Amino acid sequence: MEGNRITSLFNIKYPIIQAGMIWCSGWELAAAVSNAGGLGIIGSGSMYPEILDEHIKKCKEATDKPFAVNLPMLYPSIEEHIQTIIRHKVPIVFTSAGNPKTWTSKLKEHGITVVHVVSSLKFALKSQAAGVDAVVVEGFEAGGHNGLDETTTLTLVPTVKQELEIPLIAAGGIATGRAMLAALALGADAVQIGSRFVASIESSAHQNFKNKVLETGDGGTKLTLKELTPVRLIKNEFYQAVEAAYLREASVEELKELLGRGRAKKGMFEGDLAEGELEIGQVASLIKEIKPAGEIVNEILAEYREARTELQTQKFEF
């Protein structure tokens, strides 16, 4: 595969980026994806400062390829995370859930490439104005925290592409080589994949959660809790309790109380399939097997090439 703006920017072989998912994206997954030629990302949003320090050290020992750290702007100890990233000379940072102006210049002063995650054209342009090097444009098919507008990847990517000058990474509903080809055809320079890597050997998610992802069929997830932070969840007992709260027109305060603290950790990291938040994308319905991350990367690339060849050899008559 020929190089493009993203592979050149990150110094990677393939335009496949692993999402930095809380409770699922530790050093083992990041190193495995980077070693396979993509860009692995450590998800720091669920890590105490000393844990992030440990994961970066182990990732550097496990790969000599570039890797990144995902940094949610709402993280309470963000300044400590920033210092850890700078101290270890992490080459790339993906920021999310906040204003990219806050830390972009600081990171870039230290030679760090900065990418911001957005779910709308408005915030893509604000990110570009803030000086980021690229943006991840995420459609509402994606798992976890999401945008309010429910704009699909198929619509969002070309909408942003026509007005953006910096490189664009497509995310949301992408888990296969055919989806990757479609995203690149829409104008993306690369794809970011989350849910497919949750169900990998190296993912730090609990085995119960990985197995549940394999069982999640069509219509098995829903975007909810918009009054707090929109999040796509598997429809388990906790999700049903949220739906019941909406039916009785619960207040925002009641929803906050119902959510409580640590639900995502309980579900995805500790394996409580009933009471935990189980965050996954709509594309879970396509995931049928837990595999090594490197094998997943290779399968995506093989399917991408096969699909591209099919399109090149077909003769369409209209």
Write the layout of secondary structure elements.
Blueprint: H1 5-10, E1 16-18, H2 27-35, E2 40-43, H3 49-62, E3 67-72, H4 78-87, E4 92-96, H5 104-109, E5 113-118, H6 121-129, E6 134-138, E7 144-145, H7 153-161, E8 168-171, H8 177-185, E9 190-193, H9 195-198, H10 207-215, E10 221-224, E11 231-234, H11 237-247, H12 252-259, H13 263-269, H14 293-313
Parallel strand pairs: 1-9, 2-3, 3-4, 4-5, 5-6, 6-8, 8-9
Antiparallel strand pairs: 7-11, 10-11
Helix pairs in contact: 2-3, 3-4, 8-14
The CATH superfamily label of the largest domain reads: Aldolase class I
**SSE arrangement, N to C:** HEHEHEHEHEHEEHEHEHHEEHHHH
Unreliable stretches covering 5 or more consecutive residues: none
Number of domains: 2
By secondary-structure content and strand pairing, the structural class works out as alpha/beta
Helix content range of the residues, please? 40-55%
**Overall average residue pLDDT:** 95
> Could you name the CATH class of the largest domain?
Alpha Beta
Strand content: 5-15%
Rg computed from alpha carbons, rounded to a whole number of angstroms: 19 Å
Distance between the termini: 30 Å
According to DSSP, the number of beta strands is 11
Structure description:
Helix 2 (27-35) runs parallel beside helix 3, helix 3 packs parallel to helix 4 and helix 8 crosses helix 14 (293-313). The chain is globular, with a radius of gyration of 19 Å. With 318 residues, it is an alpha/beta fold. It has helices at residues 5-10, 27-35, 49-62, 78-87, 104-109, 121-129, 153-161, 177-185, 195-198, 207-215, 237-247, 252-259, 263-269, 293-313; strands at 16-18, 40-43, 67-72, 92-96, 113-118, 134-138, 144-145, 168-171, 190-193, 221-224, 231-234. The relative contact order is 0.13. The protein has 2 domains: 5-204 and 287-304, Alpha-Beta Barrel (TIM Barrel), CATH 3.20.20; 207-283, no CATH class. It has 14 helices and 11 strands. The mean pLDDT is 95. The longest helix is centred in the last third of the chain and has 21 residues, at 293-313. The protein has an 8-stranded parallel sheet with strand order 1-9-8-6-5-4-3-2.
